[in-house]
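Predict the assembly for these two chains.
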Amino acid sequence: MDNKSLVSIDDYTKEEILEVLARAAEFEKNPNCNLLEGKVVASLFFEPSTRTRLSFETAISRMGGKIVGFTDSSSSSVTKGETLKDTTKMVSNYCDLVVMRHPIEGSARYASEVSDVPVINAGDGANQHPTQTMLDLYSIYKTQGTLENLNIFMVGDLKYGRTVHSLLMAMSHFNPTFHFIAPKELEIPLAYKIFMDKNNINYHEHTEFNDIINEADILYMTRVQRERFADPLEYEKVKNVYILKNDMLENTRENLRILHPLPRVNEIAVDVDTNPKAYYFEQALNGVYARQAIIAKALDL
Amino acid sequence: MNAKKELQVSAIENGTVIDHIPAEYLFQVINILGLDTCENSVTFGNNLGSDKLGKKAIIKVADIFFEDDEINKISLIAPHAKLNIIKNYQVVEKKIVESPDKVVGIAKCMNPKCITNVEAVTTRFKVIEKTPITLKCHYCEKITDHKHIEII
C-alpha cells in the first residue's frame, strides 16, 4: 500500500492540510511550471465527470506533465470485463501517478493497494472526493484568511452529500461552529453528530432557511438530487424548499462567501451571481491550484 | 435437579468445549474455525435448551487448543460463547471470546455498492464498537451494524 496516495480526506493530518493549502497559494501565484516534466499521469475516469477531469488535466498540463487515460469506461477494457485490479496494475506500470474516478465505493482505496504508484481519488461513488474538499478548504482559507473559529452554514442535502461530510470532517480540526439547514428527510446523519459530539464541536440544526444566515462566515449550498429519493413524491416535497435569493443576503456579514460544489440547478437564484458574496465560480478555479498542490505532494515534488 | 446432570454431548478427555453458541450459527462457527476439515474428533449438539439464548449449540473438539485470535473470530456471531479447556476430563481453564479490533475476510460489507461486493477483494473492517459489535469497512467506509453482519 502506498501511503502517498490521497483516498480519503482523513488521510491528511491537520498539518498536511495546511501544508497543501500553502502550496496551492504558491501555485496560484505561479501556475505554470515544469515540476511534472518527463512524468506521465494516468487519468482513469470510469464514469464521466467533466468538471473534475478538466480541472485535473489543467493542473497536470500547467505543471508540464503528460496525460494518458480514458474519459469513461465504455472506451476502456472494462467493457471487455477486465477487473479494476488488473486495469490498475497494468496502468500503474506505465505511469508515475494515477488519478481515478470510479462509481463503486471503496474502489480508490483498493486501487491504492494494488497500484505501484500513488493514487489520487477523484471520487469513488458516494464515498469520498478529497480533492473537492481541499478546494473547498482553500476557498474558505482564501476568503476568510483563516480556517479557525468560523461559522459554517450548510444547506440542502446534508444526508447524502459527500462534499458536506468530507468538509465537516476536515473542518473539525479548526474549531468551527456548524449550522445545518435541511429538511428532516435530508438531515445530517447520526454518525456525524456522534463524531461532532465526541470531538466537542458546536453544531445547531435548523429546518428554516431564514435570517439565521446573518451569522454566517461561509454558506455552503448543495443540490438536492432527484436520484437520491426512492419516492418521487418525497423529492417534490423538498426540492424547492431551500433556495437562496439575493434579498436574503442583505443583512449578512461583509466577509460572508457563498460556496457550492456545482453544478447547481435552482438552489441559488441567478440574481445572486453578481453579488460580491457569491464565490462558487472562483471556487471552481481554485480546484486547479488545490489539485496542483495535491499532485506535487503525492509525488514528493 | 440431580446433582449431576446428564451431559447432552459426551465429555472429552482433552481439548476445548465451546459453549453458548447461538443455535442458528453452529455451522458457521464450525466453518470459521475450520472444524469441517479437522481430523480430530469433533462432537456437537444443536438446539439444546439454554436459559440465556433459548436454543444453543455446543461443540467439543478433542486435543485442540485454540489461539486467542483464532477463537476471537467467532465473536462476530457468537459474542457470548464460552470456552472450557479440558485436560483429563477436568475444566482447567475458562475463557470468554473477545471482539477483535480488526476483522479480515470473515464478514461481508452490507453496502451493495462496495468494491468488496463487486470484485474479489478480501473484506477488511475496523471494529468501532464492541457491544453491540459494529464494523466500519476499510474500503467504502460504511458502517455494518450487528444486525446486518453476514458471515462469508
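The mean pLDDT of chain A is 93. Chain A touches chain B through 17 residues (CB under 8 Å).
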